[in-house]
Design brief:
Blueprint (H helix, E strand, L loop, with lengths): L6 E5 L5 H11 L4 E5 L10 H4 L9 E4 L5 E4 L1 H9 L24 H5 L1 H4 L1 H14 L5 H22 L12 H12 L1 H5 L7 H4 L1 H11 L2 H13 L2
Parallel strand pairs: 1-2
Antiparallel strand pairs: 1-3, 3-4
Helix pairs in contact: 1-3, 1-8, 1-12, 6-7, 7-11
């Protein structure tokens, strides 16, 4: 039996990476079914899933209309949707890819910086603060310092322009939204003297503009409804 939707998205209700993929797919008006893996039951390591993603990580997307083509890792999935490739092209109108001759750094490559910046620093700070069995203040401080350095870089860009690249909201911006909304407060809530709104005003306003977009708002609302 053929799938009812073009894509299947394997993801996790409480994670962040799968939700940014869902936002991009929703922005593009793509039809997809989300399958939420149960981490407690170790479904992410079960053969039914690892046959698609041997690394046992989320998210994974299957493109059913392209011979069930499998794409793994969130940034690779986003690039698949917005960059021209041999399989298909899904953002022909450049709604969120914003690639123009004037843009030397395509948004998809800018989006990869979330994997190099936000993910490691925010994620490690939260892991050590909340989940690590031992308290290691020096490690937390290190990752908080790096997170603030990244925020400073973004602030320097956003002070000069509304969006990161291309003169409009693109996947470069969307790639950061789940980290900014889902973990930033937890990462930095105990940094003495920090006031994001005053210290980094352009950065602080940026996710609020993103969350005002109907597609992003609807996906984030769905995420919130599944957390209970």
């Amino acid at each position: 039996m053929l799938p009812k939707t073009q894509f299947t998205l394997y993801t996790y209700k409480g994670g962040l990476y799968g939700w940014k993929v869902a936002m991009v797919m929703t922005e593009l008006g793509l039809t997809y079914e989300s399958i939420y893996l149960d981490f407690d039951k170790r479904e992410i390591k079960a053969p039914a899933y690892t046959k698609y993603n041997p690394n046992g990580r989320i998210p994974t997307v299957i493109d059913h209309k392209s011979n069930n083509f499998v794409i793994r890792e969130s940034d690779a999935i986003i690039a698949y949707f917005v960059e021209k490739n041999d399989t298909a092209q899904y953002d022909t109108a450049q709604r969120i890819s914003a690639v123009t001759p004037e843009v030397q750094d395509p948004p998809a490559s800018m989006a990869l910086l979330t994997g190099l910046w936000s993910g490691p620093y925010f994620g490690q700070a939260i892991w050590i603060k909340v989940y690590h069995p031992e308290k290691v203040p020096s490690a937390v401080q290190r990752y908080q310092k790096e997170a603030l350095r990244v925020i400073g870089v973004l602030e320097s860009v956003l002070q000069k322009q509304e969006w990161l690249v291309g003169g409009k909201c693109s996947v470069a911006d969307m790639a950061f939204i789940t980290w900014n909304n889902g973990s930033l407060g937890m990462c930095l809530n105990d940094v003495e003297g920090l006031e994001l709104e005053n210290d980094y005003p352009a950065f602080h306003a940026w996710p609020q503009k993103l969350m005002a977009r109907p597609a992003i708002k609807s996906v984030w609302k769905l995420r919130a409804s599944l957390q209970g």
